[in-house]
Amino acid sequence: MPTIQDVARRAQVSVKTVSRVMNRHEHISPKTRERVEQAMRELNYAPSAIARQMRLGDNLSIGVLLADPSSGYQSQLNHSLLKACSKAHRYLAVELFDEANPDWRGQVAQFLDRTKVANMVLVPPICDSHDIHGLLRERQVRFVLVSPSGPVAGASAVAMDDRQAAREVTEHLISLGHQKIAHIGGRDAHVVTVLRQLGYQEAIQAAGLSSEGLVVKGNFSFREALDCAEDLLQRPDRPTAIFAANDHMAVAVMMTAHKLGLSVPEELSVAGFDDTPMGRSIWPPLTTVAQPFDQISDMAVALLSSKPANASAASEAHILPHELIARGSSGPAPN
Q: Cα dist. 278→186, 224, 266 in Å?
């Protein structure tokens, strides 16, 4: 297999000159450039993409760190980012991120050292870390935020209106006659947990209903939601509807209802969030909110591709539309 040294000998130039030709250096004469390129063609030499990336940094790849790629939200976002990168002729560098490890900065620094990516998409909860924002600026890595809790100077953000979507889900259940509606929330570290609970409470209050004792924490976990649902559904004054902050927890509610002999939706209506394959596959299919994952990913990749690497970043917030999908898991409140 030919090496860069072989090319240099064939072209009768130094290795440094061959490297400059490959890296499109300006101060190379046309004659020397042609001689080097001719030697590369004759030897069928292909420079190492990995070595080039290590020298120059990888502007084609986009990095993303996922805490739980098996979750409905992150798996769908990962898939949509892969599609968006493919359309833009870019590559996605994905790595696991440990939320429980307090050294978030160290994890991101190691990821950057290994991959040399020059662009990143930051998803919750890491998108709200000012320390990580500072690290990326120090490394001159461009980044886009997905669903941050607020604006960040010099960074673009892409999101949907979680608060409004949660309000619409709750209003849907209220319109079916439900007056005792429980909410199973997500993890405290995620801003969407707060936003979805706020939307739920706004709808409850606007309808003159009470949420006292009906808000519990499931931490976006299927297993924890099983316990929450069992507690709620075995109360003497159990709720007639439950809105869970993601589909995994909503499916846990439905399984618990079936276990307790409660019919969905005749005796209990259930709604989730994210429109995951699990929610579409269970019976009855789950009422939920469809996030615009493809549009979010397309926008994030477009924002990272729209300016040259040395351009100053602008603070832009792009709110994309969601869709409430009413399916068989929600129905009229029981008499």
A: 18, 17, 21
Cβ neighbours of residue 38 under 8 Å, at least 6 residues apart? Answer: 11
Which pLDDT score, from 0 to 100, does residue 150 have? 85
Is the Cα dihedral 320, 326, 329, 335 positive or negative?
A: positive
- Residue 324 DSSP one-character state: E
The series of mean pLDDT values per 10 residues for the chain, 335 residues long, is: 85 87 77 89 71 55 86 88 93 91 93 91 92 94 92 90 97 98 92 95 98 96 97 97 97 98 98 94 97 95 73 71 97 94
Domains in the chain and their CATH numbers? 4-47 (1.10.260.40), 57-161+292-322 (3.40.50.2300), 162-290 (3.40.50.2300)
Q: What is the pLDDT of residue 311?
A: 42
Distance between CA atoms of residues 303 and 299, nearest Å = 6
Amino acid in the structure at residue 66: L
How many CB atoms within 10 Å of residue 247?
Answer: 26
Long-range contacts of 41-47 (CB under 8 A, 24+ apart): 42/10, 43/2, 43/6, 43/7, 43/10, 44/2, 45/2, 45/3, 45/4, 45/6, 45/7, 47/4, 47/22
**Locus of tokens 């996030």:** 291
